[in-house]
Amino acid sequence: MATRQYELVLLGATGYTGHLTAEYITRNLPTDLKWAIAGRNEKKLAKIVEDLQSINPDRQSPSIEIAELNKEDLDQLAKKTKLLITTVGPYFQYGEPVIEACAKNGTHYIDCTGESPWHAVMIERFHEIAKSTRAIMIPQCGLDSVPSDMVAYLLASHFRKTLNTGLSNVDCSVHIKVKPSGGTLATLLGIFSAYPLSHLKKTTSLFGLSPVTPPNTTTKGQSFLSKLTGIRNVPGLGWLGIYVNAGVDVAVVGRSWGLLDGGKFYGPDFHFSEHGSTKTFFGALLRNVIMAFGFVLLAIPPINRLVRKRLTQPGQGAEKELWQNDRVRWRAIGHPSLPSSSANSNRAIASFSYDSGIYWLTGLLMAEAAMVILRGQRTLANELGGGLLTPVTLGEQYVDRIRRAGVIVEVERE
């Protein structure tokens, strides 16, 4: 890789998330970074470069690479760079040839997909190929699913360091206030028609992406009402209902469980659940009814097509002036793998929070992950020999970088 033209290529810079990622790179990554933006429309890419020059005129502008989303163009693009970030979605439609080109050419890869059903297919097809070329490939390295992956990892690390034991039940609450981009909405609507329900169910479960056989664990302490309604009241977290992206996130957490020492680091008692935070029982009930009804409707093809026509188009998103209203909070309570009395008295809380644009946050998370891979010390991702991995395989270096970038990441005994 030493002779490659670029350290980093950003594919999809003309889209909403891609443009923000390019701006983050311009403002925050080292000025000696050799990078390029890539896409199909040279005129639009040139406008992006012009915008970036006005942000930081002292740094060298990125080069422009024209590439169609076909095997030949992507193969040539992958050969030019050490690492490729792609924001071109929906990934189930456009992502496979990008992953294939990177896996075959030993090019490190990062994306911000929230499509674990597609992610599962990519693991099956390209994980071993990527290992053979030692390409470190990290899908779901944005808002989906870095926060969830990180709070679970922080809790497991805390108990290993302080009690020399594994991690048992984890309850995670998510508070998120944001207007989704057009690309996010297009993906959510399209995924229902792209895969059978059996595949969707499997690949949005905790161990649906795990490389090793999962343990036989069950959640503890759920009342009959909780099981019936899907609503829980967890001390320290409050009322919890359905979170729309929970299945996407927990699948990555479960893959990390399997990648970190074959499940031994987190331990055989591990279980992780993720929920949306609400203030009251009735708020949680209303959330669950709306979510359940919505999922049923979106699974009906004519309704799905109608909704797609009505909602925001891909490439659109909130203006920066509205970012002040964006905020995200992940708060997870974990128990150590100890007898019940000891586990309850040794609970720990991990949190991940950020106040500002969440699509800017996604760019931040991908760019900082790229810097760990490109210029950081050796990580678990290297020790695993590459392949389709998860954000936490970048370890404490990654945690430290995003902290310095303004993300609040903490873990402490309750």
Automatic annotation (TrEMBL):
One of its GO terms (biological process) is glycolipid biosynthetic process. It comes from the Eukaryota. Keywords: Membrane, Transmembrane, Transmembrane helix. Residues 9-132 form the Saccharopine dehydrogenase NADP binding domain. The keyword Transmembrane helix applies. GO terms for cellular component: lipid droplet; mitochondrion; plasma membrane. InterPro entries: NAD(P)-bd_dom_sf, Saccharopine_DH-like_oxidrdct, Sacchrp_dh_NADP-bd. The chain crosses the membrane at residues 281-300. It holds the Pfam family Sacchrp_dh_NADP. The keyword Oxidoreductase does not apply. This is Saccharopine dehydrogenase. It comes from Patellaria atrata CBS 101060.
